[in-house]
Design a protein that fits this description.
It holds the Pfam family Alkyl_sulf_C. Belongs to the metallo-beta-lactamase superfamily. Type III sulfatase family. Residues 89-155 form the Metallo-beta-lactamase domain. Residues 340-475 form the Alkyl sulfatase dimerisation domain. It is a single chain. The chain is 35% helix and 17% strand. The strands form four sheets. Strands 4-5-6-7-8-9-10 form a seven-stranded mixed beta sheet, with helices on one face. A six-stranded mixed beta sheet has the order 11-12-13-14-15-16, with helices on one face. A five-stranded mixed beta sheet has the order 19-18-17-20-21. 44% of the residues are buried. The longest helix is centred in the middle third of the chain and has 27 residues, at 308-334. Helix 3 crosses helix 4 (140-146), helix 7 packs antiparallel against helix 8 and helix 14 packs antiparallel against helix 15 (440-456). By secondary structure, the protein is an alpha+beta fold.
Length: 612
């Protein structure tokens, strides 16, 4: 099994302590949840549902190990897209003296490939790179290296989102590492690149943040820039899958560059977790494309659409899909349906099923309604019996007892699997797993059900989640609960590190503590953490604060990162050369011990690692 570079160290660290890896099996033909399926082998060796050979029709090429054929496609005079380097398109606009591109890829290597392919159609220099949003902008360093005078244009939120770890779409930057772990599971990053468990669609690696170039221009809503005689108007208020989108209108060519239209059923909710994707705001972006009179629509994830009527019909149908999901969810709520009922309540009309750009090959449709419910009224379903909840462990324990004990629940799960009710079988075995997550029998049965489900699913995201967790349950890999790449954490300033660190306080350990620790990092101004009875306030300027610090910790930025990432013990960090404490060193060490070591490998596991 090949592991991605990012997780190589984590896997090597933990594998010697893991239990014996177990094999997972799936039949190439069978029935799942009462529906016959057939798995076929795709060019990279991946096994996936045969229906996917036709469901990727929007891309006009046979499904392979990437979405798109590698080529430079001419759309109109001076208009191209660079395709097939990763799971996205790179729109190209040729001007009189140069070239404008929309996004730059996921790494400097991809950036260099973009330049090579661009040179097959024009020798003009890249004069501007426009960032569609914060996800595909990490080939920029390669472009800047070759064209140092190029402009880099972005939504003002791009740089701050990346600096705070919100590139994955986190509402709260403190939980960015949790969402990064979701990214790992969503995009096959810890699974083989070849063989039956490989991704059947586009593989997306964790971006190389070293390739990011800070914007030279941060534009505002409606602003117009003239680049080499070409007017471009920018729209920044359309939040699609992140809040740093940049939709671009080129009036002289009737062209829109956008990330609102994708070439498949849009991920209205991301299983990794993210900010709420408001259907009304997204449909406003789509209608903006229509109302501008767009004749060429170039999209980050969707094939180019050419022709005013074709663009109009496409974006209207796409917007109608968003509104259908939203409106039917609200209808279900008014009819008294509970959150867990909503996925089965949605019945997609046939004209949506027939649309080549609404194939269900990315996110699973039945996961889209519940976030709308929660956004609209919160978690409570109006049933007074659900005001107070049991923990997962207590609920599982009580249900197992009610069903006649663990052995009986296991039998019921096996029978449900034989009867073709695999979802219920998985629910039953999961009750057992929750009460004893180190029981290898429970782990193996849960893994086998997840593996079969993942193989049959058309949704590549859900497939990757299922197979990745099946691997972890059968000891093929260690799955971190939190992921924070060095490129991100090393770029975080002391204020960002400490404001995110403060939420880790354990109030039971802190008790009645009233303690202010000042931090002097690399001779910068003193900032602080003030703990008052289990709650920590970040102090931006200790010198101006009403209370004098109990102690001052002078340290380097790398030492603060080590503390944040729990790479070393507190005592070791305090004793390192260059670090010093003004005050009682033992009290400082005691105070810092009140904070959870969330990145400690022994703690940072989504699924418990079994000892050999």
């Amino acid at each position: 099994m090949k592991a991605s570079k990012l997780f190589f160290g984590i896997i090597i660290l933990l594998v010697p302590f893991m239990g014996k890896a177990q094999e997972l099996k799936v039949d190439k033909k069978g029935t799942f949840m009462g529906t016959p399926y057939e798995l076929v082998e795709f060019p990279n060796g991946a096994w996936a549902n045969k229906t996917l050979q036709t469901d990727y029709k929007m891309f006009k090429v046979p499904l392979s190990s990437n979405f798109i054929k590698k080529e430079v496609a001419k759309i109109a005079d001076g208009i191209y897209t660079i395709n097939g380097l990763f799971a996205s398109y790179i729109p190209v606009i040729e001007t009189k003296n140069g070239v404008i591109i929309y996004d730059s890829g996921t790494s400097p290597e991809i950036g260099r490939e973009i330049l090579k392919m661009l040179e097959t159609v024009t020798k003009k220099p890249v004069i501007a790179v426009i960032y569609s949003h914060s996800h595909y902008i990490f080939g920029s360093s390669a472009i800047k290296e070759k064209y140092p005078n190029a402009q880099f244009i972005a939504n003002p939120r791009v740089a701050s989102n990346l600096a705070s770890g919100q590139g994955a779409g986190s509402v709260f930057p403190e939980i960015g590492p949790l969402l990064n772990s979701g990214l790992v599971q969503q995009f096959h990053m810890m699974l083989p690149r070849e063989g039956k468990d490989a991704p059947f669609g586009g593989f997306i690696s964790f971006p190389d943040f070293s390739g990011f170039v800070r914007p030279t221009y941060e534009v505002t809503e409606g602003q117009v820039l003239t680049i080499d005689g070409l007017d471009l108007q920018f729209f920044t208020n359309f939040n699609v899958d992140s809040d740093d989108q940049l939709l671009v209108w080129i009036p002289s060519r009737k062209i829109v560059l956008n990330n609102a239209f994708w070439g498949f059923m849009p991920n209205m909710y991301s299983l990794r977790g993210s900010n709420f994707r408001d259907p009304e705001i997204i449909t406003q972006a789509l209608f903006k494309i229509r109302d501008l009179g767009t004749e060429i629509m170039l999209s980050t994830h969707g094939m180019p659409i050419v022709g005013k009527q074709e663009v109009k019909e496409t974006v209207e149908t796409y917007a109608d899909f968003y509104n259908f999901v939203k409106d039917q969810t609200l209808r279900a709520m008014l009819l008294g349906r509970a959150p867990q009922d909503l996925g089965k309540f949605l019945k997609l009309p046939q004209h949506f099923r027939d649309a080549e750009y609404l194939c269900e090959t990315y996110g699973p449709l039945e996961t889209y309604a519940e976030p709308i419910y929660h956004h609209g009224r919160g978690w409570f379903d109006n049933d007074a019996a659900n005001i107070f909840k049991l923990t997962r462990e207590d609920e599982a324990t009580n249900l197992i007892k009610a069903m006649g004990g663990a052995e009986r629940v296991e039998q019921l799960s096996d029978q449900a699997n034989k009867d073709g009710d695999q979802i219920w079988a998985m629910k039953l075995i999961n009750y057992l797993y929750v009460t004893d997550p180190t029981n290898q029998t429970y782990r193996t049965k849960k893994a086998q059900l997840l593996y079969q489900l993942g193989m049959v699913l058309e949704s590549q995201n859900a497939r990757s989640w299922c197979i990745t967790q099946a691997y972890a349950l059968t000891n093929k890999l260690a799955l971190p609960r939190l992921v924070l790449p060095d490129e991100i954490v090393n770029s975080m300033n002391p204020n960002t590190l400490l404001t995110q660190y403060k939420v880790r306080i354990d109030p039971e350990k802190a008790g009645t503590t009233n303690y202010l620790l000042a931090f002097a990092v690399d001779n910068d101004k003193k900032v602080g953490l003030h703990c008052r009875f289990g709650v920590v306030e970040f102090i931006d300027d200790v010198e101006k604060y009403s209370q004098a610090p109990n102690a001052t910790l002078t340290m380097s930025q790398p030492s603060l990162v080590d503390l944040f990432m729990n790479r070393k013990s507190v005592g070791q960090i305090l004793s390192e050369q260059g670090n010093s404490v003004k005050g009682d060193k033992k009290e400082v060490e005691k105070f810092l011990s009140y904070f959870d070591e969330i990145f400690n490998p022994a703690i940072n596991q989504h699924i418990p690692v079994l000892q050999q």
